[in-house]
Design goal:
The complex is a heterodimer. Chain A is built from eleven helices and twelve strands. By secondary structure, chain A is α/β, with parallel strands linked by helices. In chain A, helix 3 crosses helix 4 and helix 4 packs across helix 6. Chain B is mainly α. Chain B has one domain: MetI-like (MetI-like fold). Classes of the chains: A alpha/beta, B mainly alpha.
Chain lengths: 354, 295
């Protein structure tokens, strides 16, 4: 790993214990329900923001999470960062349970996050240098050393320290601010960086620059990314594997090429079909699915997608499909049509690989 | 790998960045009204502070034969009061006590109220409910009544009137501080600070305080005028300073009987109270607009 490219002033990263075979992050049955109070006499309801989400991220890979607005992508990110209490589920960082083998403080060094709103995620009263140096100082780094590190990291994200270190967030552009946010995340020597719509608010040319920066930093610092976005092109570009969420649930998970070329879940198919085409001779003519996602306060029973699915059968509203493997390449989908012998008329015959 | 070099990014000139407060300072200097008010206040402050060295008459020395002289009498540029004491000297010396009991409660309340409000706003939950509902109890009483009640219970005296006015202002400042903090707490940079592993106290000190201080400060400056008037009111009622101390509120009270004999002299202490409070009010308005910087 080329971590020595930076100086010795960097904080020590959380030690790699499990080796390459151990996933860096294992999430099992992650659940978050928000109670909402009804009126005076109304019964209380719950928003099922994240419901039984299970996945893992291997060391060094980039996992993309895609889905419509409100499908629980950002809630998942905040739950992983422990910025929000989860209702159920386990989060294992390199095999270590947070709060037991790994303290929350250590986790925060090992896992960092870049937020979508580059302006709101920087303190307007602190200079850029102070913002970046804040994290290392919290973890006991000397002020002067932390500032030196901040300046070096500014260089790493392509901002000249002499120009930018003493500026305030409102004095620089959105793309520059997002570079600062990336530097701020890197200042704690994390091994996992959660990028929550980190490039979504940037215009296309700046977005491309930041994406390239992210790719470069990944190889330089040996990072693992969890890349949350609603932009399918960007996800395909940067991710190794992709996870598709719908109404708080994982509907499909697999290597990005397989999911793109052979989507197994009708929602994924619709999502991919909804991508604007850049070819004028091959315009997208009809909307693949219509309507808004159902209210997560009261998700439909059975498969949550059956209200908008073209292939819905009585089975779909009766029984929710489980995430099951398609083939042996790690491609999984939660659809009765993908499971042999599920009872759906389009499901593959038993014994035949999909 | 070398750092990403991007010509467009590197082209930006190496400007010297101006901090937030430097910008606010520049904006307030351009505001003529604020500067005029600041100068008036400065003059009043300095004269009160330097009163013994200004060559004034003794503010306690009365003269039974030279009572209630009108403004402009030789040796009495602003006339004399009901006991024949020099009004100019008494007004300037009176500024010392009046400013002290007018401003110090706001300073104390600013410190206490900001701390309470930030803690309530940042921690939230049960602690917020406990603090804010206790504060609400104080809002049930009109502030004048509350000040009189506390002062009355503690007894007359300068310290007691400062204490009672502090109690009056703490709830108001706490409420402002709490609402500003609640707004800032939900910003992403606070989450980012939490995500970097910082404790609640560090976050409140580094990330919350700097962002909420401005609005609370402006609000508190506006309270100084109220405080001056309340303090004068307490003295007027005999709950603050005691004769023969020169203090504007008390002077207003004792000269009240002379209002038909020599109205101009009787109005002078009131004029001082008015001047100081209107200047603080205008200055806080100026601060408010100077601090309202959008990007």
């Amino acid at each position: 790993m080329s971590e020595s490219a930076l100086t010795e002033t960097m904080l020590d990263p959380v030690e790699d214990l499990g080796g390459a075979a151990q996933p860096l992050l294992r999430v099992d049955g992650l659940t978050k329900h928000f109670p909402i109070r009804g009126g005076l006499l109304g019964k209380s309801k719950t928003v099922r923001a994240v419901d039984d989400v299970t996945f893992s991220i291997a060391k060094g890979e980039t996992l993309g999470i895609v889905g419509e607005s409100g499908c629980g992508k950002s809630t998942t990110a905040r739950l992983l960062m422990h910025l929000m209490e989860r209702d159920a589920g386990d989060i294992l960082y390199d095999g270590m349970q947070v709060g037991r083998a790994l303290s929350l403080r250590e986790l925060r060094r090992g896992m960092q996050m870049v937020f979508q709103d580059s302006y709101a995620s920087l303190n307007p009263r602190l200079t850029i240098e102070e913002s970046i140096a804040f994290g290392p100082k919290v973890h006991g780094m000397d002020d002067a050393v932390a500032r030196k590190l901040a300046r070096e990291l500014l260089g790493k994200v392509g901002l000249r320290p002499e120009t930018f270190a003493n500026r305030y967030p409102h004095e620089i552009s959105g793309g520059q601010r997002q570079r600062v946010n990336i530097a701020r995340a890197l200042a704690l020597s994390p091994r996992l960086v959660i990028l929550d719509e980190a490039v979504s608010a940037l215009d296309k040319s700046v977005e491309a620059q930041v994406l390239n920066l992210l790719t470069d930093l990944k190889s330089e610092f040996g990072l693992t990314y969890l890349f949350i976005s609603h932009d399918l092109n960007v996800v395909r570009y940067i991710s190794d594997r992709v996870l598709v969420m719908y109404l708080g649930e994982v509907v499909e998970l697999g290597p990005v090429d397989q999911v793109w070329d052979a989507p197994a879940h009708p929602y994924t198919r619709a999502l991919l079909a909804a991508m604007p085409s850049s070819d004028p001779d091959n315009r997208t003519q009809t909307a693949p699915i219509t309507g808004d996602p159902p209210n997560p306060i009261d998700p439909p029973p059975g498969c949550r997608f059956h209200t908008r699915c073209a292939f819905a059968e009585p089975l779909c509203s009766a029984k929710g499909p489980k995430l099951s493997a398609i083939g042996d390449s790690g491609h999984e989908a939660a659809c009765h049509m993908a499971v042999a012998g599920s009872g759906h008329s389009r499901s593959p015959a038993v014994g035949v690989a999909a | 790998m070398t750092a990403i070099t991007d010509s467009a990014l590197q082209a930006a000139p190496a400007t010297k960045a101006r901090g937030y407060w430097a910008t606010v300072g520049r904006r307030i200097v351009r505001d003529k009204v604020s500067i005029a008010c600041a100068l008036v206040l400065l003059a009043i402050f300095l004269s009160a502070l330097l009163a013994p060295w200004l060559g004034l008459a003794d503010p306690y020395q009365g003269s039974m034969i030279r009572r209630l002289r009108p403004i402009g009498t030789p040796n009495y540029p602003l006339g004399s009061d009901e006991l024949g004491r020099d009004m100019l000297a008494r007004l300037i010396y009176g500024g010392r006590l009046s400013l002290l009991i007018g401003i110090s409660p706001v300073i104390f309340a600013f410190i206490i109220g900001t701390s309470l409000g930030i803690v309530a706003g940042y921690v939230g939950g049960k602690l917020n409910t406990a603090i804010m509902r206790t504060i609400d109890v104080f809002f049930a009483f009109p502030s004048v009544l509350l000040a009189i009640a506390i002062s009355g219970a503690l007894g007359a005296g300068i310290v007691n009137s400062i204490v009672s006015l502090t109690v009056v202002f703490v709830p108001q400042i706490t409420r402002v501080a709490e609402s500003v903090t609640t707004g800032v707490r939900n910003m992403d940079f606070v989450d980012a600070a939490r995500a970097s592993g910082a404790g609640a106290l560090t976050i409140m000190r580094v990330h919350i305080l700097g962002n909420v201080l401005g609005p609370i400060f402006v609000y508190s400056t506006g309270l100084i005028s109220v405080s001056m008037i309340l303090a004068a009111g307490l003295s007027f009622l005999g709950l603050g300073t005691k004769p023969p101390e020169p203090e504007w509120g008390l002077m207003l009270n004792t000269l009240r009987t002379a209002i038909y004999v020599n109205p101009w002299v009787a109005a002078l202490p009131g004029t001082m109270i008015f001047a100081v409070s209107i200047c603080f009010n205008l200055l806080s308005d100026g601060l408010r607009s100077a601090m309202d910087i959008r990007n």
